[in-house]
Amino acid sequence: MILELDCGNSFIKWRVLESQCSTIRAEGVVGSDIALIDSLIALPGLLLTRCRLVSVRALEETDKLVDALVAAFGVVVSCAVSAREVAGVRNGYEDFERLGLDRWLAMLGGYKLAPGACLVLDFGTAATADFVAADGEHLGGFICPGMPLMRNQLRTHTRKIRYDDVAAERALERLSPGHTTAEAVERGCMLMLRGFVLTQLELARSYWGDDFTIFLTGGDAELVADAVPHARLVPDLVFVGLAMACPLS
Ligand SMILES: Nc1ncnc2c1ncn2[C@@H]1O[C@H](COP(=O)(O)OP(=O)(O)O)[C@@H](O)[C@H]1O
Ligand SMILES: CC(C)(COP(=O)(O)O)[C@@H](O)C(=O)NCCC(=O)O
Ligand SMILES: [K+]
Description:
It is built from 8 helices and 12 strands. Helices cover 39% and strands 24% of the residues. The protein is of the alpha/beta class. It has a 5-stranded mixed β-sheet with strand order 3-2-1-4-5, with helices on both faces. A 5-stranded mixed β-sheet has the order 10-9-8-11-12, sandwiched between helices. The ligand CC(C)(COP(=O)(O)O)[C@@H](O)C(=O)NCCC(=O)O is lined by residues 8-9, 56, 98-100, 102-103, 124-126, 128, 143, 146. Potassium ion is lined by residues 8, 102, 122, 124, 218.
């Protein structure tokens, strides 16, 4: 069995695949290294042969996780690394190593699933947009605060914006102007996110007309999905790219 990990700034997304057929045997989202190891240990019949991982965390943090995995399961861990070009996609950053690896892998995945121009939108801690032209050239991208950062900035830097998770969840049932603090903040941030999406779409159209594929991924992708009904919602897009960047042979 193969363990795959996508370590974002807030959560670790994990899944276990059967080595032969790549069927997903188990998967989850956890908030810490310890929670990850606990979830894996709890799986009946787990027999890990390999592990591949992508991380946007600090090197020391990632190394600590790798050490914990080696200690707990005795697996060899392959970590995705930056590259100038993979599978026809050319990294567009001035310094290719500075491009977030989750963005890079999502682009590789998108271009593989729909060879041709792609707009890749990822909604995690940050919201990111990346433009890949039909010939595989990465035209660059944008980074802005995602939903968790937007709401937390308001909660942290104001005196009177306070509400609980239940109120937050209920607030997003509609998008009309809010009548409570929770509604006003949650819906306001949501509209910021949707505004970001629509702006990226406009830019993509100015480059490529209607001839491009939009990918939505990341934990909050569903929040904006109905704003772009023709987009492809692919929650595991980073994992598609991870398998390309870290083939296990
Ligand atoms: N099962 C889940 N566990 C935790 N967060 C989730 C889950 N499903 C969706 N989310 C949402 O995903 C967001 C985090 O997205 P994610 O792509 O995991 O971020 P990152 O890669 O930056 O860690 C959070 O705002 C949270 O609301
Ligand atoms: C932009 C990001 C913070 C997104 O991280 P995430 O929201 O997925 O946790 C990450 O891709 C990153 O740290 N990138 C390095 C900076 C860059 O891509 O320019
Ligand atoms: K991510």
